[in-house]
Amino acid sequence: MSVLIKGGRILTAADDYVADVYAEDETITLIGESLDVAADKVIDASGKYVLPGCVDPHTHLDMPFGGTVTIDDVESGQTAAAFGGTTTHVDFVIQPQGATFAQALDEWRAKANGKQVIDMGYHMAVTDLKEGGTLEELAQLPDEGVTSYKLFMAYKGALMVDDETLFRTMEVAAETGALVMVHAENGDVIDVLVKQALEAGHTEPLYHALTRPPEAEGEATNRAIQLARLAGAPLYVVHVTCREAVEPIARARDKGWEVWGETCTQYFFNSLDDIAKPDFEGAKYVYSPPVRDKSNWDVLWNAVRTDTLSAISTDHCAFLWDGQKTLGKDDFSKIPNGAPGLEN
Predict the structure, then answer these.
(1) Beta-strand (E) ranges in the chain?
(2) What is the pLDDT of residue 268?
(3) pLDDT tens digits, residue range 1-29?
(4) What is the C-alpha to C-alpha distance for residues 122 and 148, in angstroms, rounded to an integer?
(5) Count of alpha carbons within 13 Å of 272, Cβ hemisphere only?
(6) For residue 108, which of 33, 100, 116, 224 sits 20 to 30 Å off, Cα-Cα?
């Protein structure tokens, strides 16, 4: 099938101009002014932008979390993405405790079977190297098309890994050429702060943010950078929110180290003011790492402008309000962490 898009304003990383675009069998073959070609479908794009399809490198569809499952499956999540102009996304395979990486990958591919409407790929979240996957199996994942390993430095008692697991995975990545991704927060410190807050009677959503301070993100980010440097592995720090995490990434990049950072759309626009809203409204803004003080907005914008942060994702992780977010009505630590964003 051929498509001719006429008279649109074409925006790329390098250019901004008005022209026609001709695509044949899903491949762009011609770009020019007033193209004189026949097409099966002609779209008048006058007065409209014509953009490359966006890539969202960080999503969570049909993912178990906090005693429930994210509300979007592959079909509904990808449909929303397509409406918003995203044509590719990379989702996370979460290795269940005791499962091999092959079993985890098969489970996640089955979730997408017959439901895909756009292109997708996978990162592998490593959670268990003791009774589940092995380092040898991890090294084989790039041959299966999975070239990135994610490790959680937070969510103690659930997804969090220790430094030994983190470092050993980094060593495998150094050998295979895979990319190591980290959710960088100090889970041990957060666990203490959460228990202290609840013991003091603080149950409202605001304390989700107050018990996950920027210092905990900054410390974990720096630790991951240093361990990756020691292992010789490339590192990608996901959903960076604050100055404390931006600064160690900037230092590493200034030294020429293989370190990249990502932030998310919500951290440019939401703040502690949102999660502090009364009557449990703040639960809509519970995700991890949490929203920060507004002073970090300019820090993040500048980090993107200077390529200290090289990617913007959504960390799409959607839950219903009633029956899911409300699980934490009387205990902020039980509010499912996440928010929608894939369509945006």
Answers:
(1) 2-11, 16-24, 27-32, 41-44, 49-50, 54-59, 64-65, 68-69, 86-94, 119-125, 148-152, 179-183, 235-237, 259-264, 311-313
(2) 98
(3) 999 999 999 988 788 999 999 999 989 99
(4) 8
(5) 14
(6) 224
Q: Which CATH class is domain 2-50?
A: mainly beta
Asked if the domains at 2-50 and 54-334 fall in one CATH topology, the answer is no
Tell me how far apart the terminal alpha carbons of the chain are, to the nearest angstrom. 28
Going from the C-alpha of 59 to that of each of 78, 84, 93, 121, the distances in angstroms are: 10, 14, 10, 10
With tokens 């409204």, the residue in question is: 281
Burial string for 164-177 (b: 16+ CB within 10 Å, else e) reads ebbbbbbbbbbebe
State how far the Cα of 127 lies from the Cα of 226, in Å rounded to an integer: 21
HSE-up of residue 186 (Cα within 13 Å, Cβ side): 18
**How many Cβ atoms from other residues are within 10 Å of residue 209's Cβ?**
25
For residue 150, which phi and psi values (nearest 5 degrees)?
Answer: -110, 140
User: What CA dihedral angle connects 95, 99, 102 and 105, to 10 degrees?
Assistant: -30
Contact 317, 63 (CB under 8 A): yes
DSSP 8-state symbol, 255: T
Q: Can the peptide bond before residue 278 be classed as cis, meaning omega within 30 degrees of 0?
A: no
Tell me the per-residue pLDDT of 242-291, one tens digit each, with 9 for 90 and over.
999 999 999 999 999 999 999 999 999 999 999 999 999 999 999 999 99
131 vs 239, more confident: 239
Contact 76, 39 (CB under 8 A): no
**Ranges of each domain in the chain:** 2-50, 54-334
